[in-house]
Amino acid sequence: MNKRKRKAVIAGNWKMNMTPDEASAMISELRELVKGKRGCEIVLCVPAIDIPAAVKAAKGSRIKIGAENVHFEEKGAFTGEISAKMLTSSGVEYVIVGHSERRQYFGETDETVNRRVKAALNAGLKVILCVGEVLAQRDLGITAEVLKMQTKIALNGVPAEQLENLIIAYEPVWAIGTGRVATPEQADEGNGFVRSAVEELYGKKAAEALTVQYGGSMNEKNASDLLGKVNVDGGLIGGASLVASKFAAIVDAAQ
Q1: Active-site annotation holder among 41, 68, 71, 99
Q2: Which of 59, 92, 143, 187 has CB 3.0 to 4.6 Å from 87, enough for a Cys bridge?
Q3: String of DSSP letters for the chain
Q4: Which position among 41, 68, 171, 220 bears the catalytic label?
Q5: Low-confidence residues in the chain, pLDDT < 70
Q6: 0.85 exceeded by pTM
Q7: pLDDT tens-digit series, residues 70-89
Q8: Is 71 tagged catalytic?
Q9: The domain at 9-253 falls in which architecture?
Q10: Domains of the chain: which residue ranges?
């Protein structure tokens, strides 16, 4: 990390886990463990059903609450979806957009990711934009091309002044939930490809100021090595974010 140039952010992605009661209990435990830890931003992105309980449990702490998805329309006949305005009015500050599981299981495309990114930013949300290559693409040696393409399409039409509310999370799909983690060098390289794409779009100063996280099986054991790389400005944490002590250890590593 390079905290002189950009903010470190440790964010949890709970996916489809935790009831509201479980969410409240976990956050109550976590807020004590991270009290006074000011070396990074702390975010928990929770299922929609947990948002009210999470916002209440985190109130008065340094923990920010995020959502796991957002629709690109303000309202309408989109059963099961949630608009950006619904999220902001519920106390949500962050939202994940374009996670590989949304792309794989729910038909998300680069173009719909772009629409969601713009809707969220325009509503005042802070966006955690996910990009990443599958194993076949890495084996073909086209990781750089894939990451740059996904980044550039997702940011199409996003003005430079909105980058202050944008984080990009590099998540190699082959390392998400598999227990297989990219080496610190691979993580740094992938994050560097993302930063390079932002530089091509917005210039060097904007790219250097942008927080780029690493996701994909980051945990309390490997966090220090990953966060020690210059291009890794934090993490988007899956399984380890469900256990307060493990998530707090990653926050400690980011201090």
Answers
A1: 99
A2: 92
A3: --TTTS--EEEEE--S---HHHHHHHHHHHHHHTTT--SSEEEEEE-GGGHHHHHHHHTTSSEEEEES---SSSSSS-TT---HHHHHHTT--EEEES-HHHHHHS---HHHHHHHHHHHHHTTPEEEEEE---HHHHHTT-HHHHHHHHHHHHTTT--GGGGGGEEEEE--GGGSSSS----HHHHHHHHHHHHHHHHHHH-HHHHHHSEEEEESS--TTTHHHHHTSTT--EEEESGGGGSHHHHHHHHHHT-
A4: 171
A5: none
A6: yes
A7: 999 999 999 999 999 999 99
A8: no
A9: Alpha-Beta Barrel (3.20)
A10: 9-253
